[in-house]
Design goal:
heterodimer
Chain lengths: ~190, ~120
């Protein structure tokens, strides 16, 4: 089935239910992990994931297909995560500097985080990355998105996305000593 | 859509590997059976929403009927001097028990969702 057919099923009265269930099967897990790295805890990620799919469902009739469905879904998930983080910041009056600390604090308190020392060290290093570098690194390395897709989601140039990624890899190389991890990110 | 996405029903290799990577590198876990529960919750809020709304409408009708009963009893009290005040107060109390707080909450929620959170609000 090509994407255009799938989109027309998603917006047709007759096929909507079946097509949207397929869309969930296809994107639920990958969007969850994309969101989870942005918002930290499972509880937050669950909220944002639900909001993302409700937003997708409501916006489908207006989807102009200027980007692929894939990129569009990630963009909505990203925007929902940013909206959530902004709301949290206003609630706790956090400054930009506090956001990283709060992220780590929430993560350590999350019952669905059971990282050992090495995993916590990696999280610490990732949090120290400049915001854009971290986002690009997460999207490229963990979400397997292409630089073109990342640039579309973050509204930056493709070249800038590449610069951020290699900047992040360099910083991680300097601060992480786990050889296997370094081999993986350089591959 | 690429070929790895063609089989929708089977959990694909990409998802399995992504989960492994997040667990092993970052220590991130999820509750057991989370994705199937989450999927159902999303479907209830989206494609099945209209069916739920029908139920809400019936629930609302009950709430409004109860309000009408109270209003009628009130009017009868004011204009019918034969009924003792205490009896009517008892009737109002009994009638008010018919209204479920949840119905009132639901009415408010529907109003917010349908009147305030319009498509413009959600447009990207």
């Amino acid at each position: 089935m090509n994407e255009a057919n799938f989109i027309s099923q998603l917006t047709s009265k007759k096929d909507k239910e079946r097509a949207f269930t397929k869309l969930l099967d296809l994107y639920q897990e990958r969007l969850y992990w994309h969101i989870r790295k942005l918002v930290g805890t499972h509880e937050n990620a669950d909220d944002v994931l639900q909001n993302t799919f409700v937003r997708v469902f409501k916006s489908l009739p207006k989807f102009k297909q200027e980007s692929s469905l894939h990129t569009w879904m990630y963009k909505i998930a990203y925007n929902e995560s940013m909206r959530f983080i902004e709301k949290e910041k206003r609630k706790t009056f956090s400054s930009l500097e506090d956001v990283g600390d709060k992220f780590l604090g929430d993560l350590k308190g999350d019952v669905f985080f059971d990282g050992d020392e090495a995993q916590l060290k990696l999280q610490n290093v990732l949090v120290q990355l400049p915001d854009k570098q971290k986002k690009v690194f997460d999207m490229k390395y963990y979400d397997n998105l292409k630089f073109r897709e990342i640039s579309d989601i973050l509204n930056i140039k493709e070249g800038t996305a590449k610069t951020h990624y290699y900047g992040a890899v360099k910083y991680i190389e300097q601060n992480i000593t786990t050889v296997s991890y370094l081999e993986k990110i350089k591959a | 859509m690429n070929s790895q996405n063609d089989n929708f029903s089977i959990r694909n290799t990409f998802d399995v590997n992504t989960e492994k990577k997040h667990k092993s590198d970052l220590g991130l876990n999820i509750p057991e059976g989370y994705f199937s529960k989450s999927k159902q919750a999303v479907l209830d809020k989206t494609v099945f929403e209209k069916k739920n709304k029908v139920i809400t409408l019936y629930r609302s009708m009950y709430a409004w009927s109860a309000v009408a009963v109270i209003a009628l009893l009130f009017i009868l009290t004011v204009y019918n001097p034969l009924i003792h005040t205490n009896e009517v107060e008892d009737d109002i109390l009994i009638a008010s028990l018919v209204i479920d707080d949840l119905d009132v909450d639901q009415l408010l929620e529907d109003y917010v969702n349908e009147e305030l959170l319009t498509d413009d609000f959600f447009s990207e």
